[in-house]
Amino acid sequence: MKLLKKNLLIFSLFMITLLITTVGCSATAEDAQAENKLEEIQASGKLVLGTSADYPPYEFYAEIDGELQIVGFDIDIAKEIAKDMGVELEIVDMQFDGLLAALVADNIDMIVAGMAATEERKESVDFSTSYYEAEQTMLVRKEDYEKFQSISDLEDHRIGVQMATVQEGIAQEQVSNAKEIKSLGKISDLVLELNYGNIDSIILVDTVAMAYAENNEDLTLSQISFGKEDGVAAAVAKGHEEFLASVNQTLERLIADGSIDQFIEDAVILADQQNQE
């Protein structure tokens, strides 16, 4: 009987040791997986991007050389991130409200979708360096530059905005005393209206306004600012520090050399070309 008890005790101690070892190995494996997400992506040869391609000029569908593709300045940024990692970019288009869940479930590797890095979202994912924080401004005719120095100067004037955008909301909330708020589907149509004198200004993010001013010698950015929108960033699952560092390294390069500004300008023009076809 004593021998049996002794054997049971030894067996119990062995099982406890085995359980502790197994749990410890499992935790170590999970830590290694978190640390080696970058290596995992590089080994697979592809970076799986989650986005919602309904938000030009960030990401949208366009026909390029007869083929429908997802394009936009977010996509250009993601391509650079993938290139620096030495892998191909694979794009998964889904509804915006499903992106975070897909990232947490490891169905995608990264989100680049005009997503603001809010405190609530930071509870479930990690965000990169902010790569875009546009100022809301106005495009006006050069001859009217001195006329519009503050929001109060817009009273009884005709304001143009793109339909169903943040800028439309700004006009309705901050320029309620305007003579008219004209909402159109395409920025290019608003620019024509401005050139023809049918409206007095267009509310746009600064990068978009600059792109149109550069291509229209009679137009310029106004002195008026409606403030900045929330900065947007790339999102990755929590714990992947090396992966996030690689993403940030690419973003910092693109910010420093002005590539992102060029991506934005190109995407705005491409989006308008698609609307005209």
UniProtKB/TrEMBL annotation:
Keyword Signal attached:
yes
**A Pfam family in this protein?**
SBP_bac_3
Its subcellular locations are: Cell envelope
- Keywords, A to Z? Signal
Cross-referenced PROSITE patterns: PROKAR_LIPOPROTEIN (PS51257), SBP_BACTERIAL_3 (PS01039)
Keyword Glycosyltransferase applies: no
Domain Solute-binding protein family 3/N-terminal, first and last residues per copy? 46-267
Q: What is its main location?
A: other
Query: Can you tell me where the transmembrane regions are?
Result: none
Q: Which residues belong to the signal peptide in this entry?
A: 1-29
Q: Which InterPro entries match?
A: SBP_3_CS, Solute-binding_3/MltF_N
What are the annotated GO cellular component locations? Answer: cell envelope
The record's Gene3D superfamilies line, in alphabetical order, gives: Periplasmic binding protein-like II
Which protein family is named in the record? Belongs to the bacterial solute-binding protein 3 family.
**What's this protein's name?**
Transporter substrate-binding domain-containing protein
Q: Which organism is it from?
A: Isachenkonia alkalipeptolytica
